[in-house]
Each structure stands twice: as C-alpha cells, then as structure tokens.
C-alpha cells in the first residue's frame, strides 16, 4: 500500500517538475531532473521536520515562528503536489522558501542558527536548477539580507549575544564567509555547467552525424543490393538465352555426338543460370542456400534431358550456405554427375534411383551422389576419365580445394561420386 502511494507521489512530482523536456534538451533536462529529485524528498522530509519543530516552538510560546513553520509546510505542499504552477514559477517558489527559512533562522537565531548556510544553499540551488543569472541574483539578495540584519543589530532590534562591542562588524565578518562562498560558486559552477553542456551538445552532434552516416550507408547498401540483383538477373537472362540457343541448335543437329555435346553445354549453362537466379531472388548476394538450390538444379537437369525413365530421387540434405565462388563449381559438378547417371546408369531400364547426400560437419562439406544402375566397368571408367566431363570435375574440384572419388558402389549396384571440401570464409 505504502509502496503504491509512494510511486504515485513520485510520478506526480516528476510530472510537475520535468515538464516536456527530454534528454535531447541537454543540460536543461538534467536541471529539471535534479529539481524533481530534490522536490521528491523535500515534502516527506520537510513535513517530518516541521511538525515536531512546530510543536516545540508553540510550547515555547513563539507564535510567529509557529506560523512560519506552518507556512513552510503549505509552501512545500504546493511546490510538490500542486499542478497549476509553471515549472519556472515552481523553482522560484522553492528559492523563496529557502530564503524565507534563512531569514527566519537569522532573525531568531542569528549566528547560532543555520541561516547563513541556507543563504549559501540558495545560491547553490539557483545555480543547479536555474540559469546562471539566477545565481548571480542570489548574491545581491544574500548581501541585502546580511546588511538588513546588520542594521537590525545596529539599532538593537535583534539580540546579538556573541559580542558586546563591534557587534555589526562581527556579524558582517561572519556573514562575509557565506557570501564569499556564494561568489566562488557563481564563478566556478557555471564553468562546469558550460563544459557539461558542450559535452552534451558534442555527443548529440556526434550521434546525429552517426545516424546520418548510417542512413547514407543504408541507402548506398540498398542501391548496391538493387544493382547486384539486377546484374544477377541479367546474367541469368543472358545465360538462359545462350542455353536456349544451344538447346534449339541441338534439335537441328543430325549428328548424335554433336547433339549430345550441345545438350551437355546447355545443362552446364543452365546450372550457372540457376545459381544467379537463386542469388537475385534471395536477400543475400554473398551466399546462397545450396541445399535448396540443389533440388532445383537436379529437377532442371531431369527436365532438360527429356528422358523417358522414371527416376526416384532421395535427398538427405543438411542446411548449407555456400559463397558464389563455391556454389557455381559445385553446381557444375552436380550437373556432370547427374548427367552421367542418366546417360550411362540405366540403359534398357524404365526406372532408377539416385541418392543425393549433403552433410556439414563444422566447416567441412561432404556430398555424395549415387545411383542403383548397372555400375561402370574399369574399361568404361578409364574411358570416362578421359572425357571432358571428368576433366571439368577435376578442374572444378581443384578450384574449391576439394577432393573427390568416382567409383563403383561397394555393393556393385551402381556408381558413387563423393566430394569433400572446406567452407570458404569469403
């Protein structure tokens, strides 16, 4: 219950004392924040001190001081809780309260009380929560209060029991210390505040420049991403035109060997086009999801070769991201291996099965492609090693610093191709 009341009270005070200022307002925000913190504790502590003090002075038959304590309590309540004041009016009312307390203490207790401390405190508070001019004004007010009290001492309107002679000089000497401290504060504290304000402004300018540069970099990055997407799109379209021309030319050739070579070239071009298509469709132009592109690539090869066999594909793919410098060679390698499976693995058969495994262990990539076809004899394997397809696989494997094997399966029911390489960091 008390905690909720305290939270409501603190919220009310901060609403009254912070106004609409934010951190972007710099030193002014922190002046208001400090004033709010002072006022938050002013009300409970002030009331806690004033109530017993009022009873004490009332019992001592000091009605003027009792009335003053009562007015102090009202002023503290208005400063803390009343929402009808403007912020500067609230601050000046707070300073007026401090001066009233100082004047009362000086009048009733003279040099024995804390009146001079309150005069010095008024200067400090003015410098903390108001512009420097307010602090300078308190110097004149402090001097005036001390001179007025000196006049009261001179005309014996107040008691000054410290000395029987030179009472005015004694009071002026004592009060001069408080005034001197106030003057020193007015000189040096504004220097500190100016330095803080300059620091805040420089940080705000730095933040503004950083935000502006970030915005410019984001715009530049967006432009480059758009440009890269357009480049990949045009490369893909150009490759599609080339593959289409090669495909059409293969249909017009009567020589089966030339027709096969044109078809192989068509598949290689389509493999590269597939990479560029996936890159411009993705949000990243440095890496691509190779496991996803692999499925599309194999489907493209099957559609392009226009075979009549029923091929069952079994995929076991780990999520793998490859850079374009690795994705293009790998795609061309897959193209050569899948093409060989379809051309040589299933003669005189209506169906077949191809298994494609892609595994990632730490930074190592392992890929295996196997079929359940007739396999390959040593004579055919030697002949195959002299083909352009195998030469291309060897060259591309070296390009990605990998190693590969291409051999009959252990169960002699088909052929198996494996390749292993490390992920590129660039």
Topology:
Elements: H1 2-18, H2 27-59, H3 63-81, H4 87-109, H5 115-129, H6 132-154, H7 167-252, H8 256-281, E1 287-289, H9 290-305, E2 310-317, E3 321-323, H10 324-344, E4 351-361, E5 364-371, H11 378-385, H12 388-399, E6 403-408, E7 415-422
Parallel strand pairs: 2-4
Antiparallel strand pairs: 1-3, 4-5, 5-7, 6-7
Helix pairs in contact: 1-2, 2-3, 3-4, 4-5, 5-6, 5-7, 6-7, 7-8, 8-9, 8-10, 9-10, 10-12
Give the gist of this structure.
Pfam families: HATPase_c (PF02518), HisKA_2 (PF07568), MASE11 (PF20969). The protein is an alpha+beta fold. Helices cover 70% and strands 11% of the residues.
Question: What do these coordinates show?
Answer:
This protein is α+β, with helices and mostly antiparallel strands. It has 2 domains: 2-214, no CATH class; 288-422, Heat Shock Protein 90 (2-Layer Sandwich). It is built from 12 helices and 7 strands. It has helices spanning 2-18, 27-59, 63-81, 87-109, 115-129, 132-154, 167-252, 256-281, 290-305, 324-344, 378-385, 388-399; strands at residues 287-289, 310-317, 321-323, 351-361, 364-371, 403-408, 415-422. Strands 2-4-5-7-6 form a 5-stranded mixed beta sheet, with helices on one face. Strands 1-3 form a two-stranded antiparallel ribbon. A hairpin with a 2-residue loop joins strand 4 (351-361) and strand 5. The model has no long low-confidence stretch (mean pLDDT 81).
